[in-house]
Design brief:
The chain has 15 helices and 21 strands. It has helices at 21-35, 50-63, 76-85, 118-130, 151-160, 164-170, 187-193, 222-230, 258-272, 287-295, 306-316, 339-353, 357-362, 381-391, 433-452; strands spanning 11-14, 39-44, 67-73, 90-94, 103-109, 144-145, 173-177, 197-200, 235-239, 246-250, 255-256, 277-281, 298-302, 320-322, 328-330, 334-337, 368-375, 396-398, 403-408, 411-417, 423-430. Bound molecules: magnesium ion.
């Protein structure tokens, strides 16, 4: 395998172990060489290591001749918005998104506000591993530039996309759980501004994440679930560590997966925008397809990864994208996943329909999804995938990302080799739990035999 610096979500690692100051400096100089003296925004999430790392990043960029604007603490989509609509050449976001507190990372953003492409990552990796970077002379070093507040313009932009008359009329009671991270800087104030009655939990920014782990899941959101029920709130909203995702809790305390709430947003979007195309990765529920068919829209399926959704939306001019992990992309705002925008969209749906979230979700078709992983040595992945495809050639197969098999129109199995670990990720969806379990068992047996070389 060729040497990699970037994983599926930028550069990630445990601070002072994988992500040492020396490594970060070299990576930042390589990123600076890639931007070749451009104007670069640097911002960070609320991690304890954020200050240390962003200082090194700024030094690396300056030494490569870039001018640097430090925006400090901000959600990733807010920094992406500032790049897209400001006069910048790119950004480096110091974040490890949903990873535990000992992790941090760097996300590199292009001039258009979207993460750089795999091809561009390879250019940076080339400089990093070959050391093919010429240091700038003292007279060519970059300088620090001042930058105004980026939070308010971003928040105002989201507000403009919301039917504030409807949301003010309904005065929804919402509980926001930013998980002690930078979502606390935007979502509570945004929702108050559009007329919600807002309460918060875990809203003090703290890089030790004392309230809950930075990844929002049904387990980590139990306190939010209880608070929603105890206070009689209409909705709970939780962000991950850099607030590009949002998961929602219904008024009855149920924590909902992202593709179900995305399907709800999709339904209301297509009702207002008939015939539009929505973009989602092949790992999303077929619910996204059902809703598109019901509302006369189309679905474009992509490889897994937010950048694939963003780039495809740009290519075909799609206005809406979504992921099962709670990422919603709203093109007229910015075609990247955005937790605060997602929160505003769900609030708007509740306000306009005057219906409870549990009821709205209950009206959607029901499927059962199982997600698991199967260990497989790197050198057997290609062979195993080819064999699976050959064995089930009588069934409908798609090869957008790994192999997706459709035994019938309402069930599928996705087998995807992980890009970062020696495993296959396996997703199964079927109309019932029993059918999903049966399918999983059938394919896991086949996979295990193939991996063993039987
Ligand atoms: Mg994130």
């Amino acid at each position: 395998m060729t040497q990699r610096l970037f994983g599926t979500n930028g550069i990630r690692g445990v601070v002072n172990e994988d992500l040492t100051p020396e490594m970060i400096l070299r990576a930042s100089q390589s990123i600076g060489a890639f931007f070749d003296g451009g104007r670069i925004l640097v911002g960070r999430d609320g991690r304890t290591s954020g200050e240390m790392i962003s200082m090194i990043v700024k030094s690396g960029l300056l030494s490569a001749g870039c001018s640097v604007c430090d925006v400090g603490l901000a959600p990733t989509p807010c920094i992406q918005y500032a790049v897209r609509f400001g006069s910048y050449d790119g950004a480096v976001v110091v974040t490890a998104s949903h990873n535990p507190p000992q992790y941090n990372g760097l996300k590199v953003v292009s001039r258009d506000g979207i993460e750089i492409s795999r091809h561009e990552e390879e250019q940076i990796e080339g400089v990093f591993f070959e050391g093919s970077w010429t240091p700038k002379a003292w007279s060519q070093l970059g300088s620090m530039k001042s930058v105004g507040d980026i939070l308010a313009p971003y928040r105002n932009a989201i507000e403009r996309h919301v039917d504030a008359e409807a949301t003010r009329r309904s005065r929804l009671k919402v509980v926001v759980d930013p998980g002690n991270s930078v979502g606390a800087l935007i979502t509570p104030r945004l929702l108050s501004a559009v007329g919600c009655d807002v309460q918060t939990i875990n809203s003090a920014i703290d890089g030790t994440f004392p309230g809950r782990p930075p990844e929002p899941t049904p387990e980590s959101l139990q306190r939010l679930s209880r608070t929603v029920k105890l206070t009689g709130a209409d909705l709970g909203i939780a962000h991950d560590g850099d607030a590009d995702r949002a998961l929602f809790v219904a008024e009855n305390g149920d924590v909902e997966w992202g593709d179900r709430t995305f399907a709800l947003v999709e339904k209301h979007f297509l009702m207002r925008n008939p015939g539009e195309t929505v973009v989602t990765p092949v790992s999303s529920s077929q619910l996204v397809r059902d809703i598109a068919e019901e509302q006369g829209g189309r679905v474009e399926w992509t490889r897994v990864g937010s950048i694939n959704v963003s780039r495809r939306m740009e290519e075909i001019g799609s206005k809406l994208g979504g992921e099962e992990n709670g990422g919603i992309f709203y093109g007229p705002h910015i075609p990247v996943r955005d937790g605060a925008m997602a929160a505003a969209m769900i609030v708007e749906v509740l306000a306009k329909t005057g219906t409870k979230l549990s009821e709205l979700l209950g009206e959607l078709p029901h499927y059962h999804i199982i997600k698991t992983k199967i260990p497989c040595p790197e050198n057997r992945k290609d062979h195993v995938l080819a064999e699976v495809t050959r064995m089930i050639s009588e069934r409908t197969v798609e090869a957008t990302d790994g192999v997706k098999i459709w035994p019938d129109r309402r069930s599928w199995i996705l087998i995807r080799p992980s890009g970062t670990e020696p495993i296959f990720r396996v997703f199964v969806e079927a109309p019932s739990k029993g059918e999903a379990n049966d399918l999983l068992e059938e394919y896991v047996t086949v996979l295990r035999d193939l991996i063993k070389g039987a």
